[in-house]
Task: inverse folding
């Protein structure tokens, strides 16, 4: 609490005394899965977002670099007004408090919202083709390291499953297939978390795009699958395929590589989705077992569902599909119930 209070006092002093803004009040805006926090600062007729990223835990320089790249592409990211890199403070444009997820759950037209998101993604991938060279590659090591989170945190810690030698080899072979497929795709500017919680509904130049600091140069299908096979909301396969086709047409119309056929592009989309969702299964569990954040475990069944569905569609992933159906699916409800009981036993914060 002392550290939190000290950081909040620092923010208030920075905004009012150092930046000389007429600060009236400051309130929490959001937090995320990292050590970053966000506050909304009300200053007269204006409001701003303050990113609080303690320098000993987070480095704001990647955020600033990617922000400048995306802003140069006319993507609506929060404009950066002031920075204090040494203390991990940024004063940003306030894009409001309405993420895509909120409006989609409320019943807003998904075709309109996703239409805007796909146009913005095309700006990132097509206009950003040259700028992608300034990003680190989403290479073999990164892809493998991400997928290793699933056996450790999802299978081992959450489900208490230890694959036998046959299944361990099968999982390793599956990872090799997915890595090869990812590296074979056209390599583009990848946001890496382009989904309904990181797209804000705004009146002008929708959507507002946030949480992009981990951008890399990687597979063309990655951000598309993050958006359309979202870990927080799901859509019928037929509708997803229609949006995938719509996006491929945008790429082709802009002279970008959309694959030799719709089937190839859909394969790119599906298989990088398996890599992403395997990673996310591990991350969601790590957030509980390492960081004490249980809220993401409710999204495990949906995320696992994407992996199951895709593995069942592609023969080379058939062994993985069987392992999931026989060993993983039956174990998940009890594991989630165990965590829910543990959370319920925790004392309420004072």
Result:
């Amino acid at each position: 609490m002392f550290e939190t209070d000290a950081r909040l006092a620092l923010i208030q002093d920075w905004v009012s005394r150092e930046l000389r803004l007429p600060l009236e009040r400051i309130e929490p805006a959001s937090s995320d899965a990292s050590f970053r926090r966000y506050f909304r600062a009300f200053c007269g007729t204006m409001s701003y977002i303050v990113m609080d990223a303690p320098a000993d835990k987070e480095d704001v320089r990647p955020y600033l670099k990617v922000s400048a790249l995306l802003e140069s592409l006319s993507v609506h990211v929060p404009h950066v007004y002031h920075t204090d890199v040494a203390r991990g403070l940024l004063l940003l444009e306030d894009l409001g408090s309405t993420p895509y997820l909120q409006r989609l759950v409320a019943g807003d037209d998904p075709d309109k919202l996703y239409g805007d998101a796909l146009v913005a993604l095309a700006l990132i991938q097509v206009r950003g083709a040259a700028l992608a060279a300034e990003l680190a590659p989403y290479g073999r090591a990164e892809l493998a390291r991400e997928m290793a989170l699933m056996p450790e945190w999802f299978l081992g810690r959450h489900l208490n499953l230890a694959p036998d030698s046959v299944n361990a080899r099968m999982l390793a072979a599956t990872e090799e297939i997915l890595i090869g497929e990812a590296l074979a795709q056209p390599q583009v500017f990848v946001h890496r978390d382009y989904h309904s919680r990181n797209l804000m509904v705004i009146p002008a130049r929708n959507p507002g795009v946030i949480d992009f600091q981990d951008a890399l140069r990687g597979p063309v299908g990655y951000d598309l699958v993050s958006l359309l096979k979202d870990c927080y909301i799901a859509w019928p396969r037929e509708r997803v395929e229609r949006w995938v086709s719509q996006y491929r047409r945008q790429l082709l119309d802009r002279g970008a590589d959309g694959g030799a056929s719709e089937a190839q592009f859909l394969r790119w989309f599906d298989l990088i989705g398996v890599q992403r969702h395997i990673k996310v299964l591990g991350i969601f569990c790590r957030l509980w077992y390492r960081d004490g954040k249980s809220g993401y475990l409710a999204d495990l069944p949906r995320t696992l569902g994407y992996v199951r569905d895709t593995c069942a569609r592609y023969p080379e992933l058939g062994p993985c599909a069987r392992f999931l159906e026989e060993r993983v699916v039956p174990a998940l409800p009890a594991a989630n119930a165990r965590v829910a009981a543990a959370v319920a036993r925790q004392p309420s914060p004072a």
Notes: The domain at 22-93 is CATH 3.30.200.20 (Phosphorylase Kinase; domain 1). The chain has a mean pLDDT of 95. Strands lie at 23-31, 37-43, 46-52, 80-84, 89-93, 187-190, 199-200, 208-209, 216-219.
